[in-house]
Amino acid sequence: MIRPLTFYDLPLKARKLVYHYLGWSDCTVDLNYNQLVIFPQETYPDKERVEKMFCFHDGWFDITHREEYHTLTEYWTCDWDQYETRGYHSHECSRYGCRGAPSITDWLNGKYGSKKEAPEPLKIILGSNHFRICRSSPYGFAPFFDISSDMLRDLGTLTVRLDGEPVESIEVGHCWERLDQLLPLNLDSRFGKYGLKEWERLVQRLAECIRPDYLTLYLIVNVKDAATAQAVLKPLYQLPRLKDCGLWLNKEHVPELSMLAQETVKRLKKSAHTEQPFKYPDLPIEVRWRILEYSDLVYDNALEWKPPPSSLGRVPRPFCSCIQDGPHPLFLVSKQVHHDAVPIFFQRNRFLVLPPGDIYGYRPQLYDPYMGVPPPDYRRRIVIPMHRVELSLFLSSLARNALQHIRYLEWLLPQFENYTTAPKSAYLDYLDTIELMAHSMNLPLLTLVVDLRTEYPYQDWELDNFCWPRRHAADGALYDRILQPLCRLEGLKDFFVYLRRVKKHTPGYPWQFHPRLRWAYDKDEMKYEKAVMGANYDSRRRAKPWMNRFETKMWRRREDADEAERSRLYDYRDYDPGLDDR
């Protein structure tokens, strides 16, 4: 019996992306302040009036340390006047990603799994988030010691703030580090001696639990002399090798302390054993390929390529793309490393061939869909003499042995004027390029995307939204001229075509409908795809995205803007004192 597929059958990279969209990665978790119970002044122990903080920036008020008279139970209070202002998040929340922390804390507390065993989501949470602990903050280092040993094994980043003296009140809502308020550590005082013991205990637990080359550790402490610094840094020497380390010892530049910090960081990041030279060339080719797969040869985003201006003539100044990246450094190490890196680089990356200058003929990062039609300067087309098309320039710039390794190739043709005014020699060169692809590329493993849709968006006042240019009857001749020769590439793994949209009329209120309902299903795209792939080919079943990459980018920007507007209105409604009386 065939086992049904589950979420864990997806590739690890895809699962990590899902966790990221859930808000479980790239966040900052304040172990002291997450789920911290705050009592308004003179209400302890009335739990009906308490509120919980989600991070250090959750509010703009002072919290004061108190102890119950008989049991010496620790709790924290705030003034009534300041209590009314809680909930106003500062820009620090967005900077550190604190808003994802509540769900992360639920995992740490065992709400979704055992606190002893670490399931995959918990491992991702521990490894891809930044955890912070402060001794003078509520409950000190106690929240750190509540984390199990198995969970500490997967801890990725930890920042420890070691205060010199206890504080009675803390002003939350500002910078968590509060370096100006950090008092020097005094090892002659009772608080300083006990703090050093707690620090040694914390480091010892890390040494027993963490993995080598996995933890990034940061320490913030204010020391007044080298002797105190050595006493604080000495426990760190028992740690396994760290992935990275940072030390902040004094707000003033003291050469002796700076040198001591540099030596400590260098020692913590260096193996305790004498390392022999790594003999990479003696490894089997399969192992060398595996090593290169974990290097920066493989990129998450598509690699964009633009033709150099010298190949196409002079480009107008606003759209000049004179900056060209050189080869990857690994290709320059040696002939053997270059030979090993070529298959990995071209098989594992996606290549995007762009026209010269900026996409759309304008700067999309400066365009706001709410502002209507872009300024006239943005609507300019780059019409320059084309002696060779961009696809030909890209493929001819590569070594012949590299073409067989390309697995994903996308070509954008947004500027029709360039191709209708190109000389006959450019079209003949385009036909030769297709023959080169047919003979030199591994077609059964190649996904080819031809995008003739990308263009600058315009404001559709009827739908109150930005739209992409519609198709005209004259465009069909250009489509045939470009796409029909691609029938020579029979046997591709996938072939996706994007043409300009065909608008359809949808009755009713237009703002109630998703943009997918505003455009007719494009049978012409399917016609060209079937001409290359065969009559039974269906790109929709091959997971062809309905929007091309730039439509998706612009639509996400619109959704982010709408979400920000809704969040602003929601916060105003929640925290308007007048609404509470209705």
TrEMBL record:
This is Uncharacterized protein. It comes from Didymosphaeria variabile. It comes from the Eukaryota. InterPro entries: AN11006-like (IPR038883).
